[in-house]
């Protein structure tokens, strides 16, 4: 009896589809790449050709220069040497997609990174029943249960209003998390200008160009401390403790990340206001997704693989961890 999805080959550098001569999220340049989303551990430069959503291609253009890209919108499909390929929303960041492949009567879904809760900056995850589901497990431990998003943003706004002579400096990754923090704050009623680090500008502009209203954003470079009193300032995590941040008015340091659930990480990074805000599924969302999709097999690409594989096996779902390299969880 043939192995299920024998036409899909996991390799350390990515998932290879031999019949289509294509790689999914390869960690090194290849002639043909199918890319799930724009984070640098999934979207690298230097490929001969790239199949991705229009938004992901735009992100790659900003980061790596013009791509030899073929845009594929959500719900659209192409056929490559008999393999039907369709992209559906993953709910991770702008343009993020799951890659749905069908070949010889089998369906394999490579989900990339995903989350299940609503996000005003990207399309919501779409569950697709399949034979094999390839899942991440960034937060694949039962200890990881993300709190309500609105409650975390309210913590940020409360700290801001309670300290009008200070600012709140939010560390957030430049693609996805920064724009989500800004938009979520807007949705909770914060209409004042938000100040941003220069490294955020191009990607914030890209989000706005794709219809995501971020309100008034002001570059923080060159401003005096007094100009930013009582304001939200958003910067990459690496800028929070460097010379750039010393010009800010007595900042309350915040970090928006699912890893803020781990108190030791918050202390290590000198975070005064941890904001547990993740762009990945938590433990309950991972297991509920697998229950909903009901695949015959689950392949776990990266993260805390062992616990999720064990959960599958106790429910008579065949599961295995894939030994992929180059995937990081620090974009969260």
TrEMBL record:
PANTHER family: BLL1145 PROTEIN, CLEAVAGE AND POLYADENYLATION SPECIFICITY FACTOR FAMILY MEMBER. GO terms for molecular function: RNA endonuclease activity. InterPro entries: MBL, Metallo-B-lactamas, RibonucZ/Hydroxyglut_hydro, Xnuc_lig_assoc. Gene3D superfamilies: 3.40.50.10890, Ribonuclease Z/Hydroxyacylglutathione hydrolase-like. It comes from Sphingomonas prati. Pfam families: Lactamase_B (PF00753). This is Putative mRNA 3-end processing factor. Residues 28-169 form the Metallo-beta-lactamase domain.
